[in-house]
Amino acid sequence: MTEIAQEKRSPAIMIEQLKALLDVEEIDRDLYRGARARGSRGRVFGGQVIGQALVAASKSVDDDRPIHSLHAYFMRPGDTALPIIYRVVRDHDGGSFSTRRVIAMQRGVPILNMAASFQRPEEGLSHQFAMPVVPPPEDLISEEQHFRTHIDQVPESMRDWVLRPRHIELRPVQQRFPIEMRSHEPVQQTWFRAVAPLGDDPLVHRATLAFASDMVLLGTSMIPHDVDWMKPDLQSASLDHSLWLHDVFRADDWLLYATDSPWAGHARGFNRGSIFTREGRLVASVAQEGLVRLRKS
Question: Which segments constitute the Acyl-CoA thioesterase-like N-terminal HotDog domain (predicted)?
Answer without folding.
Answer: 42-119
